[in-house]
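Good morning C.,

I know you're traveling, so I'll keep this short. The sequence:
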Amino acid sequence: MVYRSLSRLRPLRLDTVAAIAGLAIAVALFPLRLFASQIYLETVPLVLATACGLYILSLYQGSEATTHPRLPASVTMALPSVVLVGLAAMICLTVLQGERTPAFFGLSSVVATLVVGQIAFADDRHFNRGLLLVQVVLFAYAFRFAALYATPGFVGIDVWTHVELVSAIREESSLGAIAHDKHYASPFYHLLVVASSLLFELSLRSALYLTVGLVMPMSILLVYAATNLLVSDRWSVLAAAAYALASHVSMWGIHLIPTSLGLVFFLGMLYALVRVMRIEYTLRDFSLLILLSVAVILTHQVSTFIMLVLLLAAFVAQIVFVVGPFGLTRLDPSVFRAKKPVNLVGLVVFNFGMTIFVWSLTPYRQQSFLATVLSFFTQTLEESAGFLNIASGSPDDGGADGVEAAAPTLLDQVALYVDVAGFLFLLGATFAGCLYVVHRRRAEQSVFTLLLAAAFMLVFVLGMPMFGIHTFIPTRWFAFLYAPMAILGAIGLRTISQNLSPSVVVVCLLTFVLVYPGAMILAAESNPDNPVFSDQRERLAYDESELAAAESIGELTGSPRGAEIRPDQRLYTDHPYQTLFSRTGAYPSTTSATVPDDGVAEHDYVVYRERQSTDAVYFVDENGEGRIERISQDRLCRPDHGTVYTNGDVTMCTPSPATA
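The tokens, ready to paste straight into the viewer:
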């Protein structure tokens, strides 16, 4: 019925068929929420249906559409000054309050909304690309470095391990200091920090912030440059802003680990790929591709795998335009410049070959990295894979090393929807952009590479976890996925703004402007140093007393090696505090405490900190399942315990000699 009705209005094209198919898929996915409770099962079908519906509406309303209202010139000229004042206020607020508080995130949301609002609604005459890009980059620096400045140590979990590796390399002046670790074959991040520390005579913390920390916000410009090869300045700047605000992108600008540096090189790869597909490239352009791909391989394993997925998408796009249904004579150069598909076979073969070679030499758990990962994947397929088996997780899927929380409360649900709202808005715009570029007259290898890359990554991020497959650490993929999504999303918003009636355009753009920045800023990944929803999200940063306690307890116990600690001497505390002891070497054999419901822990050696009674931290219950719970000190330090260390905020308890 829908097919016949639309075909009478306009001959059906590939993009029209794809939009109708998208609606059908959304309807087919809708009943899955009855079989499993999962946020993406409940929301993605609605987002897909909305995007397809708006795109179909744009097809048959485009001829009547006119330019939507713009901001007055006086407002457009005044807003940059307002934004700069807001950025200064963000910095001052952090300095005065000593941390990024809810007031900081509220102010950041307002400032970010003003920036995105300028991009979307400034009139063409007063649209200043350079000034807007400066605002986007300055916001990224202010938002991220406020967290780095206010946090005494580091933000995150893995960063402590990497700093220990960097310290070992600097002390021994040799890469052999980490020969036992998987980063031995991908040491670029660690060598960069060591070299910067020695060259500029800085602490490791300062060297990390002034190298990886500085380059992360600036890499946003690579998204702008890639998008600008496809669409005009307004939408290129919007893509850069959407990417800069993305929660996982902010997280890797705060939690500075090899993933962060791998992301920078990945963005360079993405830009270089789009560039060689859009211009008459030279040997220099192709050499840049090879150089960036080698940099990714020598930086981070997960980033390498994601890069290979991107290259696979580019190769498939090449095949589609060589032997597929898209004839080059049908391309419309007024939309995307027609160009013969670039042959990427050599690049793909080189990268796959080098990756396999490096991974085969990378030590990981008494095997090579390649053998271990294949073993993990095989084990997952045999033991836990299954349709809608979404309960299982990997250690990197959440802050609690894969543990499950208790039954969600209303506030838990609110926090969960806030966490994914920004992603869903960008996903909807991405769907619209994908529908636009599959039109025969607009199709080209570059945009199809982006489409296929986003589709393949979504399979790893959303598809495989539905089957219980978490081997590929899906949470690490989001920041990479946001790059093609931001570009396609900008194309989608451009399509909507040009082809729908002004009233619909204003509603769509205004909703995006008002919701997307705040949702991304309030999402848990944007504020790991001091969560907005502190009752539902653990804090992945520590104050001075907690850092001092870990160091002092290490000195008190002699920082024994794991092999020297008997099972009954294991140290127990909350998660994530236990990771600080184990990853810094203060007390390697430290794990999450088991605290029964309404009961007390039965461990001999425990560490209590005041935050366990006030904020969200993880403990394990009597069934071995982790959950967020606030406890009093006497539930961890029993009456028969003696106190061997305390600084007022942190207390270490051991069996009392009087009761031994």
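Safe travels,
E.
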